[in-house]
Amino acid sequence: MRGFEYYTPTRVIFGKDTHMKAGELLKEYGCKKVLIHYGSGSAVSSGLLDQIKSSLAEAGVDFVTLGGVVSNPRLSKVCEGIELCKKEQVDFLLAVGGGSVIDSCKAIGYGVANPWTDVWNFFLKTEVPKDCLPIGAIPTIAASGSEMSGSCVITNEDGWLKRGSTRSDLCRPKFALLNPRLTYTLPQYQTESGCVDILMHTMERYFVNLETMEITDSISESLMQTVIYNARILMKEPGNYNARAEVMWAGSLSHNGLTGCGTGGGDWACHQLEHELGGLYDVAHGAGLAAIWGSWARYVYLENPERFAQFATNVFDIPCYVDFEKTALAGIEAMEDFFRSIKMPTSLRELGLDLNEKQIHELAFKCSFEDTRTIGVFKQLNMKDMEKIYLMAR
Fold first, then answer.
1. Are 97 and 69 spatial neighbours (Cβ–Cβ below 8 Å)?
2. Which one, of 228, 192, 223, lies nearest residue 205 by Cα?
3. Taking the domain 11-183, which CATH number applies?
């Protein structure tokens, strides 16, 4: 077990109609003018944006709006938001949408509060942000956990590079209004893709090659079981409030640091591998993770088959055989069977990508930062390893 620091400054208000508290909270935080940042037209057509505007008007909080955030949020939209905030003298950001919108808000917050440099430098990690505009979040999908995390990921259209910022408490939202009802209108694919994202945020921290804390393992295993159980319910009953509530709260807990206490921070190789898929081919993040995870797991599990065996036994109730390797492989297969049961891909072809060896090489080249870095801690992966995993995942 490694020592750790755990800090969760985000104020969470959970339940039905909590989004209507936005104006009251912004006024409480001293906001004078807020940017309402959102994604597609669904925030408008559903009436959600009008409800939030009404809440702000009632509290006497002035606002401007900026929509158009897409899956795998773009740097160009971030730059547009930075300029709008400067022009309108915005002092608070309100994200209404999924992880892409919240991440875009965080990047805008960095850009406005650090005018001395190009915001992209924070994603290249050549500069460190000194401040960030305060952020509030109203998630409309349970997935990224960005509403309680200190990180964000942006795609630069110049080269289609998808990169994450340095983790920092500066960009953690001041508050998150979690209303499971806001996820009702999501397409099934997005709902289940979100469930995979939640699972992967937990598994990235769970699969480490060191002695961990029993309590942290138990929390992680219980969270994974809860998400798996309720993801299956949502396949049959998309309007089940309790299932959506369980998944939404699991999403926040999976990425606020709780499941990483004592694990040294986690592996994150699958996320790095998927970021290149998202950057180049604009795939849904959770679906991309599902497509790559099984190949990663089979490539690395022999580094510590006992850890994978523990996962198999404690998450999927697979009997622990004398041979840890047999149990480990059974657990990997069980997770892939689960992905299939919620109509998530388990290969790149199922994800809709028929890639040749040249394209696979490009993915590995970009993921390795042009063969200058390794990824992962469960097993350190160089560019050749990355290429083999992508090939296995075809």
1. yes
2. 223
3. 3.40.50.1970
**Mean pLDDT over all residues of the chain?**
96
Q: Which fold is adopted by the domain 188-393? A: Dehydroquinate synthase-like, alpha domain (1.20.1090)
Alpha helices in the chain (DSSP H): 22-28, 42-45, 48-59, 75-88, 99-113, 121-124, 188-206, 214-236, 241-254, 269-281, 285-300, 305-316, 324-341, 357-367, 383-393
pLDDT for position 5:
85
Compute the chain's Rg from CA coordinates: 20
| pLDDT of 51 above 80 | yes
C-alpha to C-alpha distance for 9 and 158, rounded to whole angstroms: 34
Work out the angle at residue 352's Cα, subtended by the Cα atoms of residues 351 and 358, and round it to the nearest 5 degrees: 100
- Determine if residue 93 is left, alpha or beta; phi over 0 gives left, psi from -120 to 50 gives alpha, anything else beta: beta
Domain limits, CATH 1.20.1090.10, in the chain = 188-393
Residue 35, H or E segment: strand 33-38
pLDDT > 70? residue 49 = yes
Q: Are strands 153-156 and 161-164 parallel, antiparallel or unpaired?
A: antiparallel
Question: Which of 171, 172, 184 has the alpha carbon at shortest distance from 46?
Answer: 184
**pLDDT per position as a tens digit, 121-171:** 999 999 999 999 999 999 999 999 999 999 999 999 999 999 999 889 999
**Hey, what are 218's tokens?**
């138990």
Tokens of 306: 């006992």
Q: Which two tokens stand for residue 59?
A: 């509290």
Supply 392's token pair: 């296995």
Share of the chain above pLDDT 70, in %: 100
**Calpha distance 222→248 (Å, rounded):** 15
